[in-house]
Amino acid sequence: MADETNERALPATSWAVLGLLSFGEELSGYDLKKWSDRSLRFFYWSPSFSQIYSELKRLEKSGYASSRMVAQDTGTRDKRVYRITDEGMTAVREWAREAPVDPPVLKHGPMLRLWLGHLLEPEQMREVLGRHQEFAEQMRRRAVADAEAAKDESAWAYPTLTLRWAERYYASERDLAAAMLDDIDALAAGRDGRGRTLGP
Amino acid sequence: MADETNERALPATSWAVLGLLSFGEELSGYDLKKWSDRSLRFFYWSPSFSQIYSELKRLEKSGYASSRMVAQDTGTRDKRVYRITDEGMTAVREWAREAPVDPPVLKHGPMLRLWLGHLLEPEQMREVLGRHQEFAEQMRRRAVADAEAAKDESAWAYPTLTLRWAERYYASERDLAAAMLDDIDALAAGRDGRGRTLGP
DNA sequence: ACTAACATGTAAAGCGTTACATGATTTA
DNA sequence: TAAATCATGTAACGCTTTACATGTTAGT
């Protein structure tokens, strides 16, 4: 009996790609990248083309996906499409059900810069926060639009749930930036002028 | 006249470490790691020991930090401590003021798993969300405690501002998980039983 | 014909972690 | 005196991106 325990140890990105395949469609690397950009992107970063291609190779080597070449209609270059195997389905289900719940990884560049507020003028902090607000609102709107487009397909029930989560998450990011703008104003007022706005 | 433009191109993590040094203290790699774990951690991931050591070498090579060995009191091994240079101060200030505002990087493992809800039982989704809630509440409490400890030192005014942001951010994460738990209950009720709770 | 966009990959380089090596201090 | 912890690093490895190579299709 071979020890198969370590075969299951894949990085999260592999599980993400296998998760995309777990919806059952036969997809190329290019398809997967495009889909990942419009779905995972809201709560997970979207891997680059080259990483998707190498993850697919690894998944095939693990026996979790199979591939075949398909000829295109006209003289287009052939492409390789991937499909999840039964083994892959079992493995990704087990991962989703039983992996430990790790803390999300957050690298919030704008907040890092505001943490260094002693290096900035208040005006520059407002600039950073303003741009971050715009980004958050843009993401929120995209989540709303995508959720609307998927809302009647019961196959997309759970992806739609996470889109609703994303809608609220980015609304919160936007509002948190607004609250921080207020805090900065209060701090600047307390510094410059006479008296603080905080005490009686 | 040499082209110095590309010398300024450092990864964000370098700027984070230089940012830690920009508060003016002379610190060892070990000190920086400990401090980073209690500050950056709330909004930026905390780099490993080994990366901090190698970033410090890079910063010294760039001329942004200088180091010296200091002998310890008793027979303890000597340690190397780093201090930011004037050039480093100028560079990090320029970075904080003028770098483009990039979107935060989020890798939300729990949400990835919920996106794959078709692979889970509702009970397992609740388990994942429950653990995430606990994590978020724990982070929120730590942010509150740290903000309280720093609140009267005007030198920490901006770090305290980001701690207040973190307090609200993790409160929001906790509440977003609660909202999603409700959505899952509603979806499960619509599936199982008779009729949905959504329509008239 | 030329350009831009689509599409599929490979190669090289850089980012970041885990494991390891070393040694002192404290606690049991 | 043995084990646990603090502390400082280096080495090896794995993840991820950017740059590159190749070829097709559609628009101008």
Automatic annotation (TrEMBL), chains A, B:
<protein>
    <submittedName>
        <fullName>DNA-binding PadR family transcriptional regulator</fullName>
    </submittedName>
</protein>
<keyword id="KW-0238">DNA-binding</keyword>
<dbReference type="GO" id="GO:0003677">
    <property type="term" value="F:DNA binding"/>
</dbReference>
<dbReference type="InterPro" id="IPR036390">
    <property type="entry name" value="WH_DNA-bd_sf"/>
</dbReference>
<dbReference type="Pfam" id="PF03551">
    <property type="entry name" value="PadR"/>
</dbReference>
<feature type="domain" description="Transcription regulator PadR N-terminal">
    <location>
        <begin position="17"/>
        <end position="93"/>
    </location>
</feature>
<dbReference type="InterPro" id="IPR005149">
    <property type="entry name" value="Tscrpt_reg_PadR_N"/>
</dbReference>
<dbReference type="InterPro" id="IPR036388">
    <property type="entry name" value="WH-like_DNA-bd_sf"/>
</dbReference>
